[in-house]
Each structure stands twice: as C-alpha cells, then as structure tokens.
Please model this.
Amino acid sequence: MSRVLIVYASLTGNTEEMAEFIAEGIRAEGSSADLKEVEQCSASEMMRYEGVLLGAYTWGDGELPDEFEDFIDEMEELELAGRKAAVFGSGDTTYRLFCGAVDVLEEKLREFGAVVEQEGLKVEYGPNAEEKQLCREFGARFAQSLPGAS
Model:
C-alpha cells in the first residue's frame, strides 16, 4: 500500500475541503492518505511517503500564502529527485492569476526535482458537487500513479 502525504494551507476552509475529498479518492484506491496543515508539518516528512500532494489557496494577485514560505525553504534542502507529487488549490477568478499558488507550487516542486504527476486541480472558492467528484478523481489518479498501485 502506498502512502500519500497531503499538506495544505486553507484560510476559509475551501482548500481543506478539497484535501478531504482528494484523500477519499486516494483511499478508494487502497492507499493511505495523511492530511496535515502546512504550519503543522515539516517538509522533511515528505521523504517518508511515496507521494506528496500540496494544496494552497491563492493570496492577493496570484501569490502563495505566507504559511507555505518556511515549508518551501525547507523543501529546497531535500533530495526530491523522482519524488511523485501534484498540486491543488482554491482561488478567485476576479484576480488576474486564477489559483496562481498552484502554479507556484508546481514550479517549486519541479525546480527541486520532484515529478509532477498531473496537472494541478484548481477550484473557485469551495468545491461544488461536481468539483467534489473531480477532487476524488484527482486523488484516485494520483494514487494509481504510485509504486504498488493496482
């Protein structure tokens, strides 16, 4: 069974809700999913999992939330080459860069050597019924890409 770490920052609960539905999809594929708020997690914990999902709301005009700054700094010190990862997040289309934090996190993961397995999942505000299913499918697809997946 593959283990997946889901690290997220959520200001209003939207990104946390996405994380929970993504975890459902992962678990439906027989993998385990541990959810942690970014402020309660050290980047080094990523090394204990076969896959890592990062989730963030977008702050301001496409910016990564401050809560992720220390985590990103710690990631730079890790050997992430070949580590499987993906990114999700919530945002607001009234801003110039919709869900820009998702793009920033994907770029950082690639820069540090991780393999971004699938295109980031972006949702406006909180997930509606259809998007909740998309979150589950996102998690399931990620779990299927991990070693030992059936």
Summary: The beta strands are 3-9, 32-37, 51-57, 84-91, 115-116, 121-124. The chain has four helices and six strands.
